[in-house]
Design goal:
By secondary structure, this protein is mainly alpha-helical. The protein contains 15 helices and two strands. It has helices spanning 10-19, 31-64, 72-76, 84-93, 100-112, 126-161, 166-180, 183-196, 217-254, 258-265, 270-281, 284-299, 302-307, 313-321, 326-354, and strands at residues 197-198, 201-202. A two-stranded antiparallel sheet has the order 1-2. The longest helix is centred in the middle third of the chain and has 38 residues, at 217-254.
Length: 360
């Protein structure tokens, strides 16, 4: 007697099917979709934090510079005798006769639309003055940024890989010393030695400014490069040490990792182990520092530009503070802070691309 196979009971099949959990929502998506969603949430959180920081800068910039002693209207007159009626007209022209809260709301409304006001001393829009001086700042600080970043990363990796040796001690000591030196003091010292001349050392470079004037074409390029040497050397000397120390510290933390021991056990040369394995994994802190320095590059270096009379944003900021030219000071402060905040946010957004564990 043969036993015929029976069809499964439809009710039991339905129960078994219902017992199997069906993934829904985020769990139903693939790994790539979940990673993209997590990254978008991470990016939105960082962008929201940047927006809050910009709002705080906007508020701080308005009230902070109103604590500076002095009357900008009287300063604009240059000490000439001016009647009370004329002073009142000036204050009305620049909105200084309005209540503080009304000045603040007007400032915020205009700033959010890109209008940073009109400079008291130049009688031109602040945004025009920033646009005019920005290329000069980018030329100076951008050149220095490339040089001190490359120098700091190169010397930092070599010092870490040969830590404890004479070269490491010399590099670290020199970097700490120069990083501790005030930039304006080093700039003045450089001018005395290499511009004015000291003892047997003749004055080889101009004491300040961006050009000598009266030159065109390639001669003009050489003239600007000649003026560029001393401020760039000052910035590189002061700034490269920070990159060196951060890179060295991060790489030293990685050097005891098991994956480097495994790479050496496979027969890889130390140079390949350093370049292919250790350095890429130690670059996260350096990446943050590079982006922060990039924001400062856009903002300029106030003291160095002032010492070398470089016609950039830093010198313009110092000039505006001496009046005080409130719209120009506020506009530059907002521009400087925005550059740093934006670059910090970009660094945070780049982090998960370098290390997928960040932002999860």
């Amino acid at each position: 007697m043969s036993i015929q196979p029976t069809a499964p009971d439809s009710a039991s099949a339905a129960v078994d099917k219902a017992a199997v959990p069906v993934p829904t929502g985020t769990a139903a998506r693939g790994p790539r979709a979940r990673t993209t969603t997590a990254y978008l949430r991470y990016g939105a959180a960082k962008a929201g934090g940047a927006a809050v920081s910009l709002l705080a800068v906007l508020v701080t910039g308005f009230f902070l510079f109103r604590l500076i002693p002095g009357d900008p209207v009287k300063t604009m007159t240059g000490g000439r005798p001016v009647s009370a009626g004329q002073l009142a007209e000036y204050r009305k022209e620049f909105g200084l006769d309005l209540p503080m809260w009304e000045q603040f709301t007007d400032y915020c409304r205009k700033a959010l639309t890109g209008d940073l006001g009109t400079s008291y001393q130049f009688r031109t829009p602040v945004i025009d003055k920033i646009t005019e001086a920005l290329p000069n700042t980018l030329l100076l600080t951008g050149t220095a940024f490339v040089l001190y970043t490359a120098l700091g990363i190169f010397l930092g990796t070599r010092s870490a890989w040969r830590h404890g040796r004479l070269g490491d001690k010399l590099n670290t000591g020199l970097a700490l010393t120069l990083y501790s030196v005030p930039s304006f003091w080093l700039g003045l010292l450089v001018i005395i030695v290499f511009a004015v001349g000291l003892g047997p050392i003749p004055g080889l470079f101009p004491t300040g400014g961006m050009e000598s004037g009266g030159k065109e074409g390639f001669a003009y390029v050489l003239d600007v490069a000649h003026h560029l040497v001393l401020p760039v050397v000052t910035l590189v000397a002061v700034e490269y040490g920070q990159t060196l120390l951060v890179t060295r510290s991060a790489l030293l933390d990685e050097m005891g990792s098991d994956y480097l021991t495994t790479a050496r056990a496979k027969g890889l040369r130390d140079d390949l182990v350093r370049r292919r394995h250790a350095v890429p994994n130690a670059l996260l802190p350096t990446v943050t520092l590079v982006f922060v320095n990039l924001g400062r590059t856009v903002a300029g270096v106030i003291l160095v530009e002032t010492v070398f009379s470089w016609p950039g944003l830093g010198g313009l900021f110092y000039q505006a503070l001496s009046v005080p030219d409130l719209p120009l000071v506020q506009g530059l402060f907002l521009f400087f802070a925005s550059a740093v905040i934006v670059m910090n946010t970009l660094a945070d957004l780049v982090y998960p691309l370098l290390d997928p564990r960040v932002g999860r």
